[in-house]
Structures are given as structure tokens and as C-alpha cells.
Amino acid sequence: MYKQKLTTPEQAVTLVKDGDWVDYGMTTSQPVLLDKALAGRKDELHDIKVRETMSLFPRQVCECDPDCDTFTVMNWHLSGYDRKLAAQSRMFFNPMCFRNEPSIYRNIIDVDVAMITVAPMDKHGYFNFGLCAAVTEAITKKAKKVIVEVNPHMPRCLGGRGEAIHISDVDAIVEAPDVPVPTIPFVLGNDIDQKIASYIVEAIPDGATLQLGIGGLPNSVGAMIAKSDLKDLGVHTEMLVDAFYLMAKEGRLTNKVKNLNRDKGVFAFALGSQDLYDWVDDNPALATFPIDYVNDPAVIGQIDNFISINSCIEVDLYGQVSAESMGTHQISGSGGQLDFTDGAYRSRGGKSIIAMHATHTDKKTGTVTSNISPILKAGTTVTDPRSQTHWIATEYGMVNLMGKSTWQRAEALIGLAHPDFRDELIKEADKMHIWRKSNKR
């Protein structure tokens, strides 16, 4: 069957017809050779819609078609590359909560052709989805045609469930022996990140199960945990990052006391350094699952002392959080932040922590603005509604907003703002009728 279905990228993409919806999957599961071959058909195809998530390298269907004459590309979560294209109307954003994405594929949208990077076939005829189980099974099950791009460098990640596809469900196979699996470096945050991390680490008990987001601040938290004296930590996270590898290396991460999937570190996709990929490869201490399991608040809530740590762009005095846009300018996406904000709150002893710098400095003008604002900027997306916001952390401390009235929230959040902006925030809170004549901090 393998020999019968093995073909060239150019021949494989002839499965794509005019008007088709084509899915690339996300991050490391996106194809390289197939993308290039599909781009090569620009002048002979019409109205091809491509969905993908978080490009880690330039997409040739975008590069070859700057005016979107043939290819309309949509994205569930923007990378830096995607963000620039979206700002030029060369890529369009798909809003969603990450936990819902598999059901959106199953129940709502169509896929004509799926093109997915996979690990080599095993002796049972299965291609492992490698570093990205998240939504891949849902995409391939919905697709009318499935093309796999076999990459021998892709780690084999054990399930769980939903981590592989059988050759009988594959229509064409393309081999990519010389394509590297994309990596991102592990970069620690600056001194402000370290300060915020110190508050967060103090709030983590022994035996906690952790979820970390992406970026310098969560990386700083993870590195600090690795060097702490915390014991028997667990992992249940949508994105497995290098911070968890560091914790395991230092003996902090054992998964021994989790009351769900004990002895297994659970994740939906992994993205990081080659050291991380070597750690996850064929590792029975880890289990990958689809995102509608990993990010389900009902699942997360079953795990005691669940600590969710994510970052954001802006918080207003009502406690509304934006982690994805500045006005109408889309920065990234909702991802799973709301999933874990809800789930961690349901956990006995759990905490959802949204962390950010108190201020932002414009790189072009040098202007400093407060990341805690009276109201979110016009057009800004609310990632976490005020009713779901739990803990907020800046370099000035951490506060729990759950259960607080509007004036209590305003007072607590102003206490987390940079001192230079507090008086103005108090004035605005007073105008908004959410300021009580209480002690100014």
C-alpha cells in the first residue's frame, strides 16, 4: 500500500480541484514540499481556500500570490509572519476557542484535501502525527482526501488517543527526507519577567499540575520552577514547551500525584528546541491527546491544584483581558487561554494566572503606556470576560479578581499598575463610577 500511494509532491497536489478547501494543520504539522507544489499550480487553479495555524516558516501559497488571486489563506492563530500578512489583507483570521476547534471540523466546516506532515509509518501501518495531535485527527477524518508528507525527523509522540492515522485512510504519500522540523529557541524574559515569575512561583504548591503559555514570561516561570525546591509537579498543557523539559531534567516534574492521567504528562502539541523534541520522542512518560480533551474545562477541573499561567496584552479596570489584539490589529489568537482560565478555576485549589508587564514601550516612538487601562481600546478583542478572570500578575504583585465588585477590581488593578499611571487611572475610574473613596495605594 505504501508503494502504491507513494508519489511526488507535484503529482499529489493534483488532488486539489477548483474551489477546494485545503487544510495544512498547525505549526509543525504543516507541509513544506506540498505547499511549494500547490503554489506551483497558482496559474491553473481558481478559488482555493487554505486553512492553517501559526506558520513557523513562509507559506508559499502566500508568497506566490500576494494579491490572493488564487489562494485565500485563513489562520486559527497568528505567528509573527502571519500577523504581517493579516495586516496587509493577505491572510484572514478564524476566531475560536481552541477546545472547540475539533468539533468545528466535525460538525460545521468542510475539508476537501488535508496535507499533513507526519512521522514515518510504523510496522502496523500507522503514521504518527508527531508533535501536533491537537486538531490533526479531526482534520484528517473530515477530509475527502488526505495527503501525508513523511518527515523522518519528526518525533514520535505516544498517545493518549488521536495521535496517528492508518495508511488505509491516506490517499497519497510524499517523502520529505531533507526537511528539518521547525524549532523555536528557549528565551528567558527580562528582569521584569523574572520579578513577575517570583510572585507566581510563590503561589505554586508541591504536587501542582501546570499549564504554561508561550513567551519569555512563561519561560521565566518554568526556569524558576526548575531551580526551585517544588516537588512532584505534573503537566497538563495544550503546548508542551522547553520549560517542562527543564523541570523534568531537574526532577521537579514527576506527574506522580495527579488525580487524572497519573504518571503521564499530557499535552496537545509540542513546540520548542531540538532538546525538547528529543525528550518527547517515544517517551512513555508523556501522552498526547486531541485539544478537545486537553483543553476541556470539565477535564481540567478534575485535576487538583491546577495552575494555569498565561500572558496577555491589556487588562481594563473591569478585569476584561485581551491576549490577542490591539484595537482591530490582530496579534495572535484566542488559543486556549479562556479554556484554561475556566478549567483552572474549577480545580480544587486551582489558580488561573494572567501575567503581564505593567507598561508597554512603543519601539518606534519610545512612548510608554499602561497595560492596565480604564477600558480596552476600541475594537480590541476580549479574550477572557471579566466574569472569568481569576488572578492577574504584574511586577507590582498579584491580585485575585474573582468575587470582587467593580470598585474592588478597579482598586486592585490600579495597585498593579505602574505608579506613574495610577492617579490618572483613579480619575478615570471615578468618571466611570467604579471608584469608591477608599485608600489610594
TrEMBL record:
Major enzyme class: transferase
Superkingdom per UniProt: Bacteria
Protein localization: Cytoplasm
Location of the Acetyl-CoA hydrolase/transferase C-terminal domain: 272-429
Main location: cytoplasm
Catalysis: reaction(s): butanoate + acetyl-CoA = butanoyl-CoA + acetate
Positions bound to CoA: G213, I214, G215, G216, L217, I313, G336
Annotated active site: E238 (5-glutamyl coenzyme a thioester intermediate)
Pfam families linked: AcetylCoA_hyd_C, AcetylCoA_hydro
EC assignment: 2.8.3.-
GO molecular function list: hydrolase activity
UniProt keyword annotations, A-Z: Cytoplasm, Fatty acid metabolism, Hydrolase, Lipid metabolism, Transferase
Pathway assignment: Lipid metabolism; butanoate metabolism
Domain Acetyl-CoA hydrolase/transferase N-terminal, chain residue ranges per copy: 2-185
Family: Belongs to the acetyl-CoA hydrolase/transferase family.
Entry function: Coenzyme A-transferase that converts butyrate to butyryl-CoA.
Name this polypeptide is given: Probable butyrate:acetyl-CoA coenzyme A-transferase
Source organism of this protein record: Megasphaera hexanoica
